[in-house]
Amino acid sequence: LSRMVVAIDGPSGSGKSSVSRGVAARLGLRYLDTGAQYRAMTYWMLQNKIDIADPAAIAADAGAPAIESGTDPAAPAISVDGHDVAVAIREADVTGAVSAVAAVPEVRARLIALQRQIIGIGGIVVEGRDIASVVAPGAGAKIFLTASEDARAARRNTENGGGAGTVAATREALTRRDSVDNRTNALAAASGAMVVDATELTLEQVIDQVARIVIHAA
Ligand code: C5P
């Protein structure tokens, strides 16, 4: 278990982050949020006024920002050029631009190399979209976490602190991001992945189920 790589992939709002952190904490593993890295890259592009609609401009600067990720599941840290961006990368402007930035091959190549470096000899839960399929195809446990669109929109809406009136808007934004991610960012259950549907489960129940899959695979 101490050298295991646990890949947790899935769409936005599936509860991936809470589940991944919970599983890592319970099993004493490190934790890596690859979505936060794509968000940090996007944050840097916006800060530096790079035209998000211009893939060549994004590609030209994909190597510029220094992105550092912490791996403590109790306190996930992310910085760009030495600045803590954990809060800033969750803002709506970053969320709205991240799929376009993540679709640029130079961005993916750079971040995948960084992710593989952090994964190292293992002992880590890695969450993302393409972990089991691309980043760590040799992962010892592969989980594809999903939930109904309604459940995902409701969860994301609560995270955003929104009232019931904005669930429809949240759902629309989520669906739009999913469709870009599905087309360009490799979101699909990898072969050999265990699909866990969180729609009818509490967070604790999902953590239990995933932890059981990991222990069984170890
Ligand atoms: O998981 P999160 O919602 O923070 O991810 C933000 C975005 O980063 C996703 O919508 C997707 O476009 C991109 N992403 C990716 N590959 C990953 C993780 C995230 O393309 N492994």
Automatic annotation (TrEMBL):
EC assignment: 2.7.4.25
Residue ranges annotated for the Cytidylate kinase domain, each copy included: 6-214
Entry's localization field: Cytoplasm
Binding sites annotated in the UniProt record for ATP: G10, P11, S12, G13, S14, G15, K16, S17, S18
GO molecular function: kinase activity
Listed Gene3D superfamilies: P-loop containing nucleotide triphosphate hydrolases
Chief localization: cytoplasm
Keyword flag ATP-binding: yes
Protein name as annotated: Cytidylate kinase
Keyword Thylakoid: no
UniProt entry keywords in alphabetical sequence: ATP-binding, Cytoplasm, Kinase, Nucleotide-binding, Transferase
